[in-house]
Structure formats: structure tokens, C-alpha cells
Design a protein that fits this description.
Helix content is 34%, strand content 23%. It is built from nine helices and ten strands. Bound molecules: adenosine-5'-triphosphate. Keywords: ATP-binding, Cell membrane, Membrane, Nucleotide-binding, Translocase, Transport.
Length: 256
């Protein structure tokens, strides 16, 4: 099956600052694909170029087999986006938000169905400001899916949520995939990518420094640990390696 997204040698410069130096990866239909990296690594800049929000400085982006530069409006109709630090006017109700976002797309699904699917029917008349953190995230997911896109980009969806709301949101992300969508997930939570993602790209200083399944990355790290002649106090016990340990080593930080 052809990949739904192919990014090749993407670069994004802001003046002299090279935020994205060389990012390449491809994503298969139905994957939950994670993008992780330290603050300022270039994750959001990469995603913003991929969704057509910012022009790339160099490189090519193909979504659903079409080049972003030539087919921008087609591609925008096929992607759903929940951007970092998304918010809505305090007094806008859930139903109004869904109707408003639906009005942007000719092929929008009936908002009454979407509100039911995402368990927000009881909050239809609730103002955005009065929703819980978890309900706000559910609304943002529903809004990103109102036009029935094929690929959904979720940037730091669970930042600021308490652990319970975060876990509920994980289930929602899996529900998005169950509905046949491909999910691109940008997050700082390593447990989140380890549990949810089929594959992960680790971006550091504007380049992809690792790309694989979480299990394979963890296995490679464990293998390396066993090769060490003297156990280091900075490294965790090999049986308890997590993706977070792998991530910290990849970006050059001590694991514990
Ligand atoms: N509009 C902009 N103008 C100038 N510099 C920018 C702009 N947007 C981002 N940058 C810079 O580009 C670099 C990459 O930022 P970006 O937001 O893409 O990183 P990130 O990996 O998403 O970080 P975070 O995890 O903190 O969200 C940072 O040094 C940032 O300050």
C-alpha cells in the first residue's frame, strides 16, 4: 500500500535560524505515528509545513499521493488538525463550535452525529469555558474530524491534562484510528508514544535522529546495555528499559 504521507528532506528556516534542517519520513495508512523531540527541536515547524500552514524552505511533501505545493486545497480538505495550545472563545457552546467548524467544509459531517460519537451530546449547550480539560480535548478531536479527513495531526493534545484525563484521551486517539484515520501525534509524553504509536520519529536539532517502532528502539537499547562491560549507575536496569530511557539517550541526556 502506498504511504499516505511522504516527507523528503524538509527544511524550514526563520531568517538565519535553521529550525528544520533535514526531516524525512513516510507514514502508512492507519498508523499512529509519533513525533517526539526536545523543546525547540523543530517538531511543530515540521508539522506546520506538512499541513501547509507555513511554506517550507526546501524539501518535498506528498500527502495522499499528491504534492502539497500543487494540490494544497485538496490536501487541506483531507487533513484534520488540532494545533498546540488550541483554544476557542469562552462563550462558544459545543454545538456552536461544531456547526462553525463544519461550515468551513462543503463535505462536513452532520454535527449532531459527531457530537454523539465523541460523547459530548450532554454538553451541547455548555460554553467552552465551562468544559473540563478532558471534554475540551474531546471537542478538539471532534472538531478536527468534522470534515471526515483521512489524516489527523494532534500536536501536544494531552499537555496540561491530569493523568486520568490523559489516559481517557489516549483511548480517544485509539478511537480515531479505529475510525480508519491515520494519526500524527506530536507529544512530550514518552509513555504516551510508547503505548500508542506504531512508529516514532525522534527529531533533535532539526533532523530525524531515530525512526522505528518503540519496541525495536527499546530492544536495540537493551542490546547495547548488555554490551557494556561495567554497569553504569546512569543507566537503568536492562529489564526495565522504557522508551523514555531510549529517548534520553538518543538526545544525549542521562537516563536517570
Ligand atoms: N515563527 C518563528 N519565527 C522564528 N523562530 C521560530 C518561529 N517558530 C519557531 N521558531 C524557532 O524554531 C525552533 C523550532 O521551534 P518548534 O516550535 O518547531 O520546535 P518544537 O520541537 O515544536 O518545540 P516545542 O516542543 O517547544 O513545541 C525554535 O528554536 C523556535 O524558537
Amino acid at each position: 500500500m502506498a504511504p499516505v504521507l511522504v516527507v523528503e528532506h524538509l527544511q524550514k528556516h526563520y531568517g538565519n535560524h535553521k529550525a528544520v534542517k533535514d526531516v524525512s519520513f513516510s507514514v502508512e495508512a492507519g498508523e499512529i505515528f509519533g513525533i517526539v523531540g526536545p523543546n525547540g527541536a523543530g517538531k511543530t515547524s515540521s508539522v506546520e509545513c506538512i499541513i501547509g500552514l507555513r511554506p517550507a524552505t526546501a524539501g518535498t511533501i506528498q500527502l495522499l499521493g499528491r504534492d502539497l505545493k500543487q494540490h494544497g486545497s485538496y490536501i487541506r480538505s483531507k487533513i484534520g488538525v488540532q494545533l498546540q495550545q488550541a483554544t476557542l472563545p469562552d462563550r462558544l457552546t459545543v454545538a456552536e463550535a461544531l456547526q462553525l467548524f463544519g461550515s468551513f467544509y462543503p463535505q462536513a459531517r452532520p454535527w449532531q452525529k459527531v457530537i454523539e460519537e465523541w460523547g459530548l451530546a450532554e454538553q451541547a449547550k455548555t460554553a467552552f469555558a465551562n468544559l473540563s480539560g478532558g471534554q475540551k480535548q474531546r471537542l478538539f478531536i471532534a472538531l478536527s474530524l468534522i470534515h471526515d479527513p483521512e489524516i489527523v495531526f494532534l500536536d501536544e493534545l494531552t499537555t496540561g491534562l491530569d493523568p486520568q484525563a490523559r489516559r481517557i484521551t489516549w483511548n480517544l486517539i485509539q478511537d480515531v484510528r479505529k475510525r480508519g484515520k491515520t494519526v500524527m501525534l506530536v507529544t512530550h509524553f514518552m509513555e504516551e508514544v510508547e503505548r500508542l504509536c506504531d512508529r516514532i520519529a525522534v527529531i533533535d536539532q532539526g533532523t530525524v535522529i531515530a525512526l522505528d517502532t518503540p519496541d525495536r528502539m527499546i530492544a536495540a537499547y537493551q542490546h547495547d546495555l548488555r554490551q557494556q562491560p561495567v554497569p553504569s549507575r546512569d543507566l537503568p536496569h536492562p529489564e526495565r528499559v522504557t522508551f523514555e530511557d531510549v529517548f534520553l539517550r538518543l538526545i544525549g541526556q542521562p537516563a536517570h
